[in-house]
Structure formats: C-alpha cells, structure tokens
Specification:
Blueprint: H1 2-24, E1 35-40, H2 57-62, E2 67-69, E3 75-77, E4 80-85, E5 91-96, H3 110-120, E6 132-139, E7 142-147, H4 154-159, H5 168-174, E8 189-195, E9 199-204, E10 224-229, H6 233-241, E11 247-249, H7 256-260, E12 265-271, E13 276-280, H8 290-299, H9 302-308, E14 314-316, H10 332-335, H11 341-350, E15 363-364, E16 367-368, E17 370-376, H12 379-394, E18 398-404, H13 406-415, E19 420-424, H14 432-437, H15 453-462, H16 468-484, E20 488-501, E21 504-505, E22 526-527
Parallel strand pairs: 1-10, 1-11, 17-18, 17-19
Antiparallel strand pairs: 2-3, 4-5, 5-7, 6-7, 8-9, 9-10, 11-20, 12-20, 13-19, 13-20, 14-20, 15-16, 21-22
Helix pairs in contact: 8-11, 15-16
Length: 529
C-alpha cells in the first residue's frame, strides 16, 4: 500500500518537474509575457491632450475619443455607441457606451465628456469646436452639442488625437504633473513609466471595458508595449538590426533597400500627411520682409532635398499641405517660385542688399546679411540645414545653422528670437493651417508669428461651412494667399516608413483612417516567435 502511494507521489513529482522544465524552457509560450518593442525617432512630450502640441502613438493606446475612423476613413464609435445630427446641422446628440471607467476607477459618462470638451474650448486646438456654443448633459449617457452655425468639420475634430478624453479627477488632482508622471484614460493600455530621451512603458489594463470599435477583430493581445526613442538614425537602425526593436517607425531612407533585402523584415511605406518646410519669423526685421522670403524661395532647389535628405523617399512639396489632401491647391506648383538665382538677388536688392565687396555675401551699410537657421538633430534634418546653408550662400545670404532636439527647438521658438527654421507636422486635415497661421495661436503653434487679417478671416469662415467642399475651397484660397506672401517655403512630402519583424502579426499602417494616418492602433497585433 505504502509502496503504491510512494510510486504515485514520485510519478507526480516527475511529471510536474517535466512540465516545469518545459515551462521554464519556453515551450509553454502561452504563459510568456507578450512585449512589443516599438522604436520612434521622436520622444513623447507631455501626454496631456490639453497641454501639448505633440502627440505620439502611445496616446492612442491610453486614451479614447467619442468617435474614431476605421481603415477606410469611415466614422465609427469609440466611446460613443451612436449619434445623430439634426436636419439643420446645429444639434449633435451622442449616445455613450455604458459601463466604462477611467483607469483610476472613476466613471466615464456624459459629465466627464462635457468637462473635457469644455476644457478643449480653451486651448490651441479649440478651433475644432469653435461653433459649439452649448454642451448639454441630457442624462448620464447622452451628450448634446449645439452649434451657433453648422460646421462640417466637427466630426473630424472629435476624431483627432487631441480629442482623447482624460479623467477629470486625475487632471484636477495631479495638476502640472499630469501627463508626465501620471496618465489616466479609458484606453486598453495604462501608463507605467516614462524616462525622457529613453523609453515609455505601457502595459495592458485588465480593467478595460472591451467595447471595441467595430473594426477590431480580436482585441488587445499584447501584454506590454515599450516605446524606445532614437533621434539619431544610426542608433535606430542598429537597435532594430540587433533585435532590440520589433517595429521601427521612421526608418531612415538610406537604410530602406538594405532592410528590404532581409528575410526577417517587411518594409511598409506611404506618403505622410506631412510637409517639411522652411518657416520664417514675421516679427524679425529681416525674415519678416517678404522680399527676403521670396529670395529664399528662389534660392531653393527642391530636388536636392528629396534626393539627399529623403534619399528619394519623398515627393516635392509646393504648398503647406501635401498634394494628397482633398483641399490641395492644384495650381500650387505653378504659383510657387522656382529656383532662379538672378531673381533671388533681385529681391535682396529690393531690401538694399548687394555684394559690394565681392566676397559672395550681400551687404548693406557695410554689414553682411547673416541669418540664423534652426533645424533639429535627426540626420536628415541636419543634412537639410547643410543644404540650406549651401543654397542660400549661393545667392549671397550668409547662414548660421544650429541644431536642436525637437523639444528644445520648440521651447526656443516659443521664447522668440528665431529667424528661419525647419519644421514638419503630421496632420491629415487642412485645418493644420489654422493651427500654424492663426494669429490667436502665437507663439505656439503659430511659430511664424503671422498676423494677417485676411488669413484670420478665411480661417474663421472655414469653421462655418455647411459642406466640406465649401470649406476646401476656402482653404485653397488661403493657400494661394500664403504662397503670395511666401509664408513658408515647402520642401518635400516625406514617406512614413516602417520596418516590421515578420513575427509581428496583424500590424497595419492606415492610409485613410482618422488618427491612423499617423498613430497606428495595436489592436489584434501579436507576436509569434
């Protein structure tokens, strides 16, 4: 009897040991934590939609909005179950999903949504809700927005990433620390740690409501997402090739062909809803002069920037929005000044600048024309600064190029004192021009410090259109005016390039979907090694 019991016990121990060895060796992969390591070239900033001008992929995972878009650009509910619009377009009624909580345990309801939208009417992107005059809580799960005038763009405003709804309790409790040491949304991932310049860690939130948008098939399959930041191109690629990253967004153009040849990697790319451009400080006596800006425009050879900075992975840009945008001005290429050294020098001469001593640099009253050009530290943008230096000197403008990380550059521009600068944005709606040129947005994000009543008037009218086409026509008029005053010099539309290890399944970049144009969802994504 005792022998039989002993044999059973020994057998159990042996079987348990074998199972444990198998578990420890990784054969029981279902128990392993599924961690996605995602590389970005630009660090996050404050992860507070009410207090930042830069949002990254991570915000898409921690927060949700009332509505979103699917991969085909169709509006779908996210925190809203459904909605309807009155016949006159003035009253929008949203029926909210029930049983949803923020990650701090407080309820998401119509009061929370109202609070957030009211705060949104006080910040730089408030233009998205400019016509909303009343936000009414009809009952805990019904929110009504009443507009002064119909605004065809309201739906888009509610889908963009800055409309990500946070916990009112957390925002009021943590104040200025909110978005840096604490982030509280309703999304499927929660904030763990952010070490600026290094990494951001998010982990799956077990309390997520799982009332997914309609385009989601299986839901959240990852346990953790670790974002790593590499402003230097060489460091990004080295990390990806060393196996430190599973996905790299922002593949340097010079590395695309090599990565395409790898058996373990898939390259995905698309034209970004972005324009790389040269901006000017309109408050500066030199760069604020339209003759100087026209001179710069005639000094620029766009094909050089496309070939060198983007290694051909870009298209030339002729307006402040890319040519795939539905509001693009088709005559922009004909209106935009092309390279012409003689015309550039003629515009400088209108300012009184000529090369009187034969040193190649124009001067006035014995002082050479010298300007500061600020760019950022990414490899391609350092190259951009070098090209600008060479091309502007060819027409007689001396240039001092200085490179900063993105955050530092924005801080310096906010304080003023800039003259010329490199800038790039990602935004799939023409109202990016509202953010960047409306006088109400000085000093940020209107880094131009542009004060133009005609511009402000058109921008105001774009928020009162009954149809999208009426709105697009106004933005085309605006582009024509901005080219006339040479507000910026567009350079190129870059491609967004991803490198994805083949064991990462179901990762998709979205060509048409709302915030998907920049911020990729990670629903349904899993790792199969």
């Amino acid at each position: 009897m005792y022998k039989r019991i002993l044999i059973c016990v020994v057998s159990f121990i042996v079987l348990f040991s074998i199972h444990a060895i198998g578990f420890a060796s990784g054969k029981e992969e279902v128990t392993e934590e599924m961690v996605l390591k995602y590389g970005l070239e630009i660090d996050v900033q404050v992860m507070d939609p009410l207090n930042t001008v830069w949002m990254t992929n991570a915000n898409q995972l921690m927060y949700e909005r009332l509505i979103s878009k699917d991969a085909e650009g169709n509006y779908v509910g996210e925190l809203a179950e459904s909605w309807e619009v009155s016949g006159d377009g003035l009253t929008w009624t949203f029926h909210l999903k029930k049983g949803i909580k923020f990650q701090d345990g407080t309820d998401f309801d119509a009061e929370a949504a109202k609070w957030f939208l009211e705060q949104g009417q006080k910040v730089w992107w408030s233009v998205e809700y400019q016509q909303v005059e009343q936000i009414i809580v009809k009952d805990p799960y019904t929110l009504v927005l009443k507009q002064k005038k119909p605004d065809a763009n309201l739906m888009y405003g509610l889908t963009q990433v800055y409309a990500s709804i946070m916990s009112p309790t957390a925002k009021e409790k943590y104040g200025d620390d909110y978005g840096t040491t604490i982030v509280v949304g309703t999304g499927p991932f929660k904030f763990v740690e952010w070490l600026p310049g290094s990494h951001l860690i998010l982990e799956k939130w077990d309390g997520y409501h799982k009332q997914y948008p309609s385009f989601v098939k299986e839901g959240v399959l990852l346990d953790k997402v670790v974002y790593k930041f590499f402003p230097e191109a060489a460091a990004r690629i080295a990390a990806f090739e060393a196996g430190e990253l599973d996905i790299l967004q922002g593949v340097p153009p010079q590395d695309v062909k090599r990565l395409e040849s790898r058996d373990d990697t898939t390259i995905m790319k698309r034209p970004r809803d972005a324009v790389v451009y040269i901006g000017f400080n309109f408050d500066d006596p030199v760069t604020g002069n339209v003759n100087f800006r026209k001179a710069v425009a005639h000094a620029i050879k766009r094909d050089t920037y496309v070939r060198v900075c983007a290694m051909g992975e870009a298209n030339p840009a002729y307006s402040w929005i890319p040519d795939q945008n539905i509001a693009y001005l088709r005559e922009a290429q004909q209106l935009q000044p092309d390279y012409n050294k003689k015309k550039a020098q003629e515009y400088l001469a209108k300012m009184g600048y000529r090369d009187t001593d034969g040193d190649g640099i124009v001067d006035k009253d014995g002082k050479p024309l010298k300007v500061k050009f600020w760019t950022t530290t990414e490899t391609q943008f350092k190259q951009l600064g070098e090209i600008a230096y060479t091309q502007l000197r060819e027409v007689g403008i001396d240039v001092v190029v200085e490179s900063w990380d993105v955050g530092t550059q924005q801080d310096l521009i906010t304080k003023g004192g800039h003259q010329m600068y490199k800038q790039v944005y990602d935004w799939d709606n023409p109202d990016i021009m509202n953010f960047l040129s409306n006088s109400a947005n000085i000093p940020m994000p209107n880094m131009l410090h542009l004060r133009d009543s005609y511009v402000d008037d058109i921008l105001n009218r774009t928020t009162q259109c009954k149809t999208i086409e009426q709105r697009n026509d106004l933005f085309r008029q605006l582009q024509e005016h901005l080219i006339e005053i040479q507000a910026v010099v567009p350079l190129y539309v870059p491609y967004e390039i991803f490198a994805v290890k083949n064991y990462v399944k179901n990762f998709k970049y979205w060509e048409k979907g709302g915030t998907g144009y920049v911020y990729e969802y990670l629903y349904d994504v899993y790792i199969e090694k």
